[in-house]
């Protein structure tokens, strides 16, 4: 009985570790992904966005935390960066990035 309780508790903790408390990005990320893709190409960084972990939009400014990987997919290693955006007449543009 005690072993069953221990296994059950471990299962609940594992489920919480993989999903509890994580917010899903509900905003449309497409314009921001396009801005990041353009920014990375301009700087010849050879990376691509694999996931938006957060996105906050206020008036004509926004910030996003993204997971990026090497563009060819050769390496399965990633980094997290915070991008800052401003909205202009032609859409969103990355103004800076910061490694997290």
Write a structural description.
With 100 residues, the chain is an alpha+beta fold. The protein is 31% helix and 42% strand. The protein has helices spanning 2-19, 30-42; strands spanning 47-58, 61-70, 78-88, 91-99. A four-stranded antiparallel sheet has the order 1-2-3-4, covered by helices on one side.
Please summarize what this structure is.
This protein has helices spanning 2-19, 30-42; strands at residues 47-58, 61-70, 78-88, 91-99. By secondary structure, the chain is of the alpha+beta class.
Helices, strands, pairings?
Elements: H1 2-19, H2 30-42, E1 47-58, E2 61-70, E3 78-88, E4 91-99
Runs in which pLDDT lies below 50 for 5 or more consecutive residues are 3-19
Order of helices and strands: HHEEEE
The first-to-last residue Cα distance is 44 Å
Helix content: 25-40%
- How many β-strands, per DSSP? 4
- If you compute it from the alpha carbons, what radius of gyration comes out, rounded to the nearest whole angstrom? 18 Å
**Strand order within the widest sheet?**
1-2-3-4
Shape: globular
| Number of helical elements | 2
Mean pLDDT, to the nearest integer, reads 83
Given helix and strand content, the structural type is alpha+beta
**Main sheet summary:** 4 strands, antiparallel
Oligomer kind = single chain
Strand content: 35-45%
């Amino acid at each position: 009985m005690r072993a069953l309780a221990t296994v059950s508790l471990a299962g609940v903790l594992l489920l919480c570790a993989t999903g509890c408390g994580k917010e899903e990005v509900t905003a449309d990320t497409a314009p921001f992904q396009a801005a990041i893709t353009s920014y990375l190409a301009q700087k010849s960084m050879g990376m691509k966005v694999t996931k938006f972990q957060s996105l906050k939009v206020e008036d004509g400014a926004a910030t996003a935390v993204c997971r990026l990987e090497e563009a060819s997919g050769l390496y399965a290693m990633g980094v997290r960066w915070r991008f800052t955006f401003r909205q202009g007449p032609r859409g969103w543009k990355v103004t800076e990035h910061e490694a997290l």
